[in-house]
Amino acid sequence: MATEKAFDTSKTADAISRLSVTDYREFSSSDSQIQTYLSSLLLPSETCSICSAPLPQNAKFCSECGNKIIATSIVSTLLEESIDGLSVSDRLKDRVRPKFPTVGSIVQAKRNELMKIPYIKDVRSRIIKNAADEFISG
User: Fold this and answer.
1) Beta strands in the chain (DSSP E)
2) Is residue 74 helix, strand or coil?
3) Label partner for 25 (CA 20 to 30 A): which of 31, 39, 108, 122?
4) Which backbone phi and psi does 32 adopt, to 5 degrees?
5) Is the dihedral of CA 5, 132, 93, 96 positive or negative?
6) What is the pLDDT at residue 23?
7) What is the pTM of this model?
8) pLDDT tens digit sequence for 26-37
């Protein structure tokens, strides 16, 4: 659910706190919200970069202009995200951002590179790396 962004919030902790066993039992095929949810999944998720026409999911070419659609994976999209989505304090983000602005840059960084940043040593570097890995894994 988290990796497919099925929640109304991008913060995983907020999404998890909103879940309950009662919700799971009450959500069934007879629920009126399931049709709304299914309909939203079938809507075009992207637009053509050339003509802005809506694209159906998994389209290889635009049906309007014939432009070839280049598919991007979820993981590569997540790696390009800003570190603002990581579950670490704003202070840590502010310290890390100048040198490592994206989640991918943190994932690729070695912990000793993170420890060159003032006030980030062994424990904080591990926390930052774990937050980036957690962000990617959903």
Assistant:
1) 46-47, 54-55
2) helix
3) 39
4) -65, -25
5) negative
6) 45
7) 0.53
8) 445 566 666 665
Q: Which 8-state DSSP code applies to residue 71? A: P
- Position 75 pLDDT exceeds 90: no
d(CA 94, CA 90): 6
Are 83 and 102 in contact by the 8 Å Cβ rule? The answer is: yes
Classify 68 as helix, strand or coil: strand
β-strand partners of 55: 46
Map 106-138 to HEC letters. HHHCCHHHHCCCCCCCHHHHHHHHHHHHHHHHC
CA distances from 10 to 59, 76, 78, 86 (A): 26, 17, 12, 10
Residue 26: the pLDDT is 47
